[in-house]
């Protein structure tokens, strides 16, 4: 009878484990079971959340891009939105074009997305402004730069893994030391964790945690020793007179402060139609009529003049204090590289576009800053 109940308990455990697996919340690796559950491996494999995509559904990493599907999307829908070939996108990710995708499912782009595809302005200003600033760094005097963190919320670039025959979400998760649930969340897998041969997965990035401070212990009876009380036979030390307080520093003369906040001139007079959002819109877009003169926000030196593949112009001006201003969407420029410009000097006109606007950036080295607090 004892043997019978042992078998029944074993069968019940198997049924429970199968039920958990069907719910998608169970890792098939049972090596952690033994003398109780051990959560140390789970803590070591903790992963960050997947970065949020931009308005086109793109997550940009240093060497590749990932498109996030919306509900009801097909490969063609995503390809049209980001400006890549639907056939190449489908082939690269091991999927047929007409198959409906799950909301949140990821597709890795075989080639960079087309600049500005699907956006309201139709222009990828970050790429052109970044290239112009890089050219500025090669000029005399140089530009002090700060390395930008990779995509999203400071996470490092995830590895990519192409699914081979016989592989499962559990085997791939174990290979990279992450949980199947994290792998599913980063790639938009279904509740059954099903994979397709040739699918490209992005591997979740581990959470970067600070090392714990060392813990010191004291043996029983070995506590701190009480200090010896002062002897009544010896005189107490003479207290020193406190030093006189230092005079308060004189208030700074505002006339001597250069290129600080609230001291840049608005390059054009218009309404801000797109606000600053770091890593998505690294400046502000100012709606203004085509042909409006564009003025230098502060005195400085023209560090670079660059055009993108569509001939759209970007002007970069270097100012004191390692500050740069970027003017994108200019035509009929009136300045050249290395020219000295004055505050308010006209450097060109707003180009014709629909809608017409000027994209304006303020950067400290490569680091983009919100221009609004700098403008007066």
Report strand %: 15-25%
Number of strands: 15
Calculate Rg over CA atoms: 30 Å
CATH architecture identity of the domain at 125-147 and 260-374: Distorted Sandwich
CA-based shape: flat
Biggest β-sheet: count, sense, barrel?
Answer: 10 strands, antiparallel
- CA-to-CA gap between the ends? 88 Å
Structure description:
The protein is of the alpha+beta class and 376 residues long. Among the domains are: 58-118 and 158-202, Membrane-bound Lytic Murein Transglycosylase D, Chain A, CATH 3.10.350.10; 125-147 and 260-374, Glucose Permease (Domain IIA) (Distorted Sandwich). The protein has eight helices and 15 strands. It has helices spanning 2-22, 40-44, 75-82, 86-92, 125-137, 151-154, 169-176, 180-187; strands at 58-60, 65-68, 106-108, 160-162, 200-202, 271-274, 284-287, 293-295, 300-307, 313-319, 323-331, 340-341, 346-350, 357-364, 367-369. The strands form three sheets. Strands 6, 7, 8, 9, 10, 11, 12, 13, 14 and 15 form a ten-stranded antiparallel beta sheet that branches. A three-stranded antiparallel beta sheet has the order 1-2-3, with no helix packed on it. α3 (75-82) packs across α4. Mean pLDDT is 74; it is low at 1-44, 118-124, 138-155 and 252-260.
């Amino acid at each position: 009878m004892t043997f019978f109940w042992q078998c029944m308990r074993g069968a019940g455990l198997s049924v429970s484990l199968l039920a958990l697996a069907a719910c998608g919340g169970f890792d098939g690796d049972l090596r952690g079971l033994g003398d109780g559950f051990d959560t140390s491996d789970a803590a070591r494999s903790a992963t960050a959340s997947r970065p949020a995509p931009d308005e086109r559904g793109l997550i940009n990493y240093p060497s590749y891009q990932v498109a996030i599907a919306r509900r009801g999307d097909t490969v063609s829908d995503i390809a049209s939105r980001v400006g890549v070939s639907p056939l190449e996108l489908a082939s690269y990710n091991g999927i047929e074009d007409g198959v409906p995708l799950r909301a949140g499912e990821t597709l890795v782009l075989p080639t960079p997305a087309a600049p500005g595809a699907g956006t309201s302005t139709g222009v990828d200003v970050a790429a052109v402004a970044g290239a112009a600033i890089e050219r500025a760094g090669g000029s005399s005097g140089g530009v002090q730069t700060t390395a930008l963190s990779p995509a999203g919320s400071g996470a490092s670039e995830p590895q990519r893994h192409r699914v081979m025959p016989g592989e499962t979400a559990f085997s791939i998760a174990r290979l990279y030391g992450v949980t199947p649930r994290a792998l599913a969340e980063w790639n938009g897998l279904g509740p059954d964790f099903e994979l397709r041969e040739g699918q490209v997965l992005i591997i979740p990035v581990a959470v970067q945690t600070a090392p714990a401070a060392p813990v010191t212990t004291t043996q029983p009876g070995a506590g701190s020793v009480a200090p010896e009380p002062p002897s009544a036979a010896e005189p107490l030390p003479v207290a020193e007179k406190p030093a006189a307080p230092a005079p308060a520093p004189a208030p700074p003369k505002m006339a001597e402060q250069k290129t600080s906040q609230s001291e840049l001139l608005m390059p054009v007079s218009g309404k801000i139609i797109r606000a600053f959002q770091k890593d998505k819109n690294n400046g502000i877009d100012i709606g203004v009529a085509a042909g409006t003169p564009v003025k230098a926000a502060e005195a400085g030196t023209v560090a670079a003049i660059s055009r993108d593949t569509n001939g759209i112009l970007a002007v970069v001006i270097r100012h004191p204090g390692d500050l740069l201003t970027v003017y994108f969407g200019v035509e009929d420029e009136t300045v050249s590289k290395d020219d000295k410009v004055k505050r308010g000097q006209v450097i060109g006109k707003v180009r014709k576009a629909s809608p017409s606007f000027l994209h304006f950036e303020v950067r400290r080295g490569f680091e983009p800053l919100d221009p609004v607090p700098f403008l007066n």
